[in-house]
Amino acid sequence: MYPLIKPLLFKLEPETAHKTALNSLQIAYQLKLTKLFAKSISHPINVMNMTFANPIGLAAGMDKNGDYIDALAALGFGFIEIGTLTPKPQIGNAKPRLFRLAKHESLINCLGFNNKGIDYAANKLANIQYRGVLGINIGKNKDTPLDQAVNDYLLGFRKLWKFASYITINISSPNTVGLRDLQHQEHLDQLLASLKHEQSSIQQQHDKYVPLVVKISPDLNPHELHEAAEVFLQQNIDGVIASNTTIDRSQLANTTYATLSGGLSGKLLDKQNTNVVAALYSILQNRIPIIASGGVSTIQSMKEKIDAGANLIQIYTGFIYHGPKLIPELAKYF
């Protein structure tokens, strides 16, 4: 079905197509039609002391506010991650801010954490049917100074932990000015120490351990990556998502896309992402699980990331270009 719908969606402006596709999926789910084109693959895997239905998850960004969790889960994902959510709602950057590079099966986005805020999401999450693994990705508001960013992350954690299987700390989007500086050792250690303290307090008070996962940039140099990984180990972080989108445009030199601001995702990120996973694994050595996110659109691209050290896989741009059939195709590999 998706091959028939995709040409129509791709005639629309990318953000409009995104919303149209999700709303259509929601209607199909409500009419109990998703079973006609969705196929679930059961291949349980235990990571971070949680059982995932299969290793193929949906990356954050597809459903920012938790509006479509049940409909997306019906497609057979082994886990879902929503967000990025910020304490206050924000509209994000000026449009146009999402660009489709169809020839390369890639996207460039400079959305800027557009979302309806953590309170809206909490109300949505209180009413979902989905009981699988749910990640909630949190960030800081654009107008929050970097030296106060920890307060935004703590607030997000405190308001959303009860709905989350794990919480992802997004400090690597290229679309919020200064955000990536939080990956540097002097900021990172303090931020994660505060969040680990909050994690411990929640566990003691509510008898629930909520794993903390950090999403990193693919653009960290080897020294920066090593420093960040050492902090993850020192702070006993539960998982790492490698990686966010890239600002590298080397593969787009002499094209109209070379000067576009924002993060690049999809096939053009594939090899860079695999290299980041491999470099990260060489430091972590199985002490912290890695979720590979970036460039997965084929069994081969997924296999390369698993061979590089990934424990789980997330898809986003590949899902947009290939549709729901990609989920069972990848999950069957296991």
Task: Give a structural overview.
The chain is an alpha/beta fold. It has one domain: Alpha-Beta Barrel (TIM Barrel), CATH 3.20.20. Helices cover 37% and strands 17% of the residues. It has an 8-stranded parallel beta barrel, surrounded by 4 helices. The longest helix has 22 residues.
Mean pLDDT: 97
CATH architecture: Alpha-Beta Barrel
Molecular shape: globular
Tell me, what is the CATH class?
Answer: Alpha Beta
End-to-end separation: 25 Å
Q: Which SSEs are present, and which pair or pack?
A:
Elements: H1 2-9, H2 14-30, E1 45-47, E2 50-52, E3 56-58, H3 69-73, E4 79-85, E5 98-101, E6 106-109, H4 118-125, E7 133-138, H5 149-160, E8 166-170, H6 185-206, E9 212-216, H7 222-234, E10 239-242, E11 263-266, H8 270-284, E12 290-293, H9 299-308, E13 312-315, H10 317-322, H11 326-331
Parallel strand pairs: 3-4, 3-13, 4-7, 7-8, 8-9, 9-10, 10-12, 12-13
Antiparallel strand pairs: 1-2, 5-6, 6-11
Helix pairs in contact: 5-6, 6-7, 7-8, 8-9
